[in-house]
Write a structure and sequence with these properties.
There is one protein chain. The protein has 3 domains: about 5-75; about 100-355, 3-Layer(aba) Sandwich (Aspartate Aminotransferase, domain 2); about 360-455, Aspartate Aminotransferase, domain 1 (Alpha-Beta Complex), CATH 3.90.1150. Helix content is about 40%, strand content about 10%. The protein has 14 helices and 11 strands. It has helices at about 5-10, 15-30, 40-45, 60-70, 95-105, 115-130, 145-165, 170-175, 190-200, 245-255, 310-315, 345-380, 400-415, 440-455, and strands spanning about 140-145, 180-185, 205-210, 230-235, 260-265, 290, 305-310, 385, 395-400, 420-425, 430-435. The strands form 2 sheets. A 7-stranded mixed sheet has the order 1-7-6-5-4-2-3, sandwiched between helices. It has a 4-stranded antiparallel sheet with strand order 8-9-11-10. Helix 5 packs antiparallel against helix 12 (about 345-380). Bound molecules: pyridoxal-5'-phosphate.
Length: about 450
């Protein structure tokens, strides 16, 4: 049978699709009790994938069974209640269900002509998001893979605009011989920002690094004088401490100087939609913003979002052309991102937001933060040192010595009962907790602290 006949036959095997759903539901049902990180014997099962590409393909059943038997046990249970690694969000069930349906649509969200539904939902969610986060009316949104890319697009807009104001069209002339751009940011800016500067040909040495305070907030007293050739990059949510820069004052200073402000709010920008919105006061004075859906909002992976106050800056920076493209009056999402073909992330965003509603978003964010505070208080009660002021969903703690902290971390990671990562904060080795899954509740926090205390 040739491959096309095989595929036609496969499409008619309804039971394969039902089987996929059965396995998915079994996985989700086991999630709360699943090892949070696979044990060595499970990891050994990954060897099953070390095979040569078969000459003749396998059936859908065989593929599914292999994935379920050897793949499911080798996942990280980040959607459960006791995964606190990196800043990895869980998944809102309604959005997952919507994803299962809409993956079968296999849409290309590049143009209105390639997916009217993706285009419509991008329009709708742009409106919702701008309002939810309190961004300036008329700000535009691009949907990408994550904050790293979103930040890159924000900086690309700044680069385009700062040079345009100096009479230099970077799209046609490039960067060789261009007027100087200044980039000012905190020493505590996330590493992805430097990466974005590298990708954009600005280089990391361009950065005028500003010292940060004890919590990782840019110290406004150390800010160099800004001018209209400056890009100032601020942060809503330090990846270690969760701290927020002082947007009111810093944006006022930047606006007076005519500088461009970009805010990296990968997980913290969501404070604007919660009862902690004092943390993001002043963000509306910036020019561009980046945030993730897959962190605090718990959308399915992967979903990063860039916003730009001025549509023209973003669209021009991403200059799009090609006679065959049929760019029209309707929303062509590719004009606001770097890709042409891409998945329809607007559907994930729409289903998550529509399920939660404005109030649900606030409750979700508030609860993650409250649980982080609860975790910090239990850790303190149990004799651990909490190293940061817990203002959002991040907690840093250590045991008595660096050696005992390292040992504790190793035991915790091997336990399979919960998972933390580590960091170095102000020259001190620390365990890093991010409460980022909607599934986590007070019982998970209590169980986690009990496990940590017992493993000490
Ligand atoms: C502050 C900050 N910026 C950027 C990023 C990168 O985000 P992404 O992994 O979605 O590219 C992170 C990731 O944790 C972050 O915390």
């Amino acid at each position: 049978m040739n491959v096309h006949d095989r595929m036609r036959r496969e499409l008619q095997k309804e039971y394969i699709f039902q089987k996929a759903l059965t396995h998915a539901l079994e996985y989700l049902g086991d999630l709360p009790d699943r090892e949070v990180f696979p044990s060595p014997d499970r990891l050994a099962l990954l060897n099953e994938f070390d095979e040569e590409l078969p000459e003749d393909g396998r059936s859908g059943e065989v593929i599914l069974e292999k994935l379920h038997e050897y793949g499911s046990p080798n996942t990280v249970a980040q959607g459960g209640g006791r995964y606190y690694g990196f800043v990895n969000g869980g998944i809102v069930p309604a959005a997952l269900a919507a994803r299962i349906l809409t993956d079968s649509w296999d849409q290309n969200a590049g143009l209105y002509l390639t997916s009217p539904i993706a285009s419509k939902l991008e329009e709708v969610t742009e409106r919702w998001m701008v309002k939810l986060l309190g961004l300036p009316k008329g700000s535009v949104m691009g949907l990408v893979t994550g904050t790293t890319t979103a930040t890159m697009l924000g900086i690309a807009s700044a680069r385009y605009e700062i040079l345009r104001r100096q009479g230099w069209d970077v799209n046609s002339k490039g960067l060789f011989g261009a007027p100087a751009i200044r980039v000012v940011m905190s020493e505590e800016a996330h590493s992805s920002v430097r990466r974005a500067l590298v990708f954009l040909g600005l280089g990391s040495e361009i950065v005028e690094s500003v010292p940060a305070d004890s919590q990782g907030r840019l110290d406004p007293t150390k800010l160099p004088p800004l001018d209209s050739n400056t890009l100032l990059i601020l942060q809503a949510g330090n990846v270690n401490t969760g701290a927020f820069d002082d947007f009111q004052n810093l944006c006022d200073t930047a606006n007076k100087a005519g500088a461009w402000v970009h805010i990296d709010g990968a997980f913290g920008l969501w404070a604007a939609a919660s009862s902690r919105k004092h943390l993001t006061a002043g963000i509306e004075k910036a020019d561009s913003w980046s945030v993730d859906g897959h962190k605090t909002l718990n959308t399915p992976y992967d979903l990063g979002i860039v916003f730009c106050r001025n549509q023209g800056s973003l669209v021009s920076a991403l200059e799009t052309s090609g006679a065959y493209l049929h760019l029209g009056e309707k929303r062509d999402g590719m004009r606001l991102v770097a890709e042409m073909s891409r998945r329809a992330r607007s559907i994930d965003l729409w289903s998550t937001l529509r399920f939660l509603g404005r109030r649900g978003v606030a409750e979700l964010v508030d609860e993650l933060c409250n649980l982080a505070e609860y975790m910090a208080s239990l850790l303190t009660e149990n004799g651990f040192e909490v190293l940061n002021e817990v203002v959002f969903n991040q907690v840093l703690f250590s045991s008595d010595t660096e050696e005992s902290t390292r040992q504790l971390l190793e035991r915790v990671q091997q336990s399979g009962k919960l998972w933390f990562g580590s960091t170095v904060w102000k020259a001190k080795f620390a365990i890093r907790v991010s409460v980022c899954s909607w599934y986590t509740d007070r019982e998970d926090i209590e169980r986690s602290v009990e496990v940590i205390s017992n493993l000490r």
